[in-house]
User: Fold these one by one.
Assistant:
Number 1:
Amino acid sequence: MNAVLEVTALSAGYGAARAIRAVTIRVEQGEHHAIVGGPGSGKSTLLRTVVGLHPAANGTIRFNDTDITRERPEWRKARGLCLMPQNHRLFTSLTVEENLLVGARWGAPGPWTLSRVYELYPYLLEKRRALAASLTLSEHQAAAVGRALMANPRILLLDAPADLAALGRLTKEGLAVVAATREVPAGACHVHRLIDGTVTTTRTEVRCRR
Ligand SMILES: Nc1ncnc2c1ncn2[C@@H]1O[C@H](COP(=O)(O)OP(=O)(O)OP(=O)(O)O)[C@@H](O)[C@H]1O
């Protein structure tokens, strides 16, 4: 099967300091990957570089067989490469539903609608008229995932997601998911260990092997 995302020998950093070094990861449609590493291991830098919010120093990023290493982040997002950042950044003065609708503005048409997001996270339906500022941390993060889904991504990158259980449902529907976490998440099939910016091991769980 063709890869949705192919990261090859990717390096990036801050000034002279490298935060990720020669990272190679291949993600196919419907796969659930985890980037697992301790604080400062480079998880956020890797995800931010893949979506174009941070420049690549070396290596390539291919998305649906197209080299996107130098493309702008908006271009990547409009084609379905979506990041839910660690700090979520919902618009706190807007309601939950208004935040979700903002997500649809920069995305592509597709299966994700308000009702499908509410089906995934029923508690957001109850809070749809509440201001985002009033949400608990896990509700806030669910709304941030919902907002990302409203853009109908082909692949969703999540930095430190709280509700890992919901991610399994996304991959069943064909969405590729890459979650950066400190511990190995239960549902992930492909686990990449990141230590000091380098992927030291990549393991495919036995239950996921074909
Ligand atoms: N804006 C920045 N300027 C300089 N160095 C940075 C910056 N952001 C991150 N770093 C450094 O880059 C390295 C990787 O950081 P990064 O935030 O990518 O790690 P992380 O695995 O996401 O950490 P955490 O789990 O704590 O979020 C660390 O050494 C960090 O100190």
Number 2:
Amino acid sequence: MTMSGASKIWARLVRALSKKSIEKPTPIQRFAIPLILKGEDAVARAKTGSGKTLAYLLPVLQKLFADSPSKSNLILVPTRELCQQVYLEVTSLIELCRVQLKVVQLRSTMSASELKTYLAGLPDIVVSTPACMQTCLKNGSLQAKALQESLSFLVLDEADLLLSYGYEDDIIALTAYVPKSCQCLLMSATARLQATTPDRMASATTTAALASVHLLGPPTHVDPLDRGFVKFGPLPQPPLPDRFQSEVDEGGCYGEIITHTHSPTRDGDGELCDSEDSILDAELYDSENSILEAVAKKLMDRGLPSENSGSREGRDGRLEDQQVPSFDVIGPPCSPDMSKETEEEALLDDVEEVDSIEEVNKAVVARVTSQDVIEN
Ligand SMILES: Nc1ncnc2c1ncn2[C@@H]1O[C@H](COP(=O)(O)OP(=O)(O)OP(=O)(O)O)[C@@H](O)[C@H]1O
């Protein structure tokens, strides 16, 4: 499908949103939607109630509408209640779009035969807890091969909770079935993470980052002005995260950036270093008995690209053989001699220009078309 075709689908989604009285994207949606539509993996943090659910649901639906044959998408949430909440959000949007998609929510209370029925033919969207997915894989309700062949998006919603509720093992086990072509998104609430104790925070964030390293591969470069999203490029070696950075905008809207860089010499380039960084650094470097090595090993075993051997295969061929830009922001590239302040102003000016979901879409279409990366 061409992007103009995709635009028509967007109109349908925009109409559906308008029926829910949702006219303008929230900041996290402004940043997330274009990047996710471009095929980026993302780690997004923004405070509770900032619209993170739609930030990933809209691109997931958009791609689902455009994909033929249809792909499967997995949304992992920490609790049954959230499972129900996300399920209702998806089904109401789909209903308003007047399209037919199979969406299921899984519960651990379901019998194996119920689970099997729900998962027959692999639904378009599965909302589940990680534990329940593991059960399905173990009892054969879900065929690992089917998942590997069709998974288009893996979303870890409320990743901070997912990873502090003891789901780490389930998530790590699940990553073995995530194809390299799968787009992975981690969404979490900064406020909630900050409200927890330093130890828990370090542990959750580290695990989130590790999961993302495992699932996504770390980014090659990150710009400190990038608000809330990180582009993941080719996987350098060794695949171990060295450092996190965090940045919170004035209104706390975009939350933090998680980055994984591999060269300590990149640190201190005017990027923020706060106490949280130190905690995280300590946690990361002290990886002896952490899951870090296990994840790194799994990553290597999976044969993900090493050094700069190129981007991941298969994602519609869009990233193939491309020079992956070092980072992605909404806005034109800044000239090298532009001061930081001017750069920031340019970025924010550009964001201000995009003030409706339709406009975001137009902007994305323009950007994506100009890069000539989406073919079908
Ligand atoms: N662009 C928007 N305009 C108006 N309302 C919106 C917009 N996006 C989402 N909402 C509404 O805001 C409410 C909160 O959104 P949502 O649950 O996605 O927040 P969240 O960031 O995921 O919060 P949490 O971290 O608690 O899950 C929902 O009722 C949702 O329908």
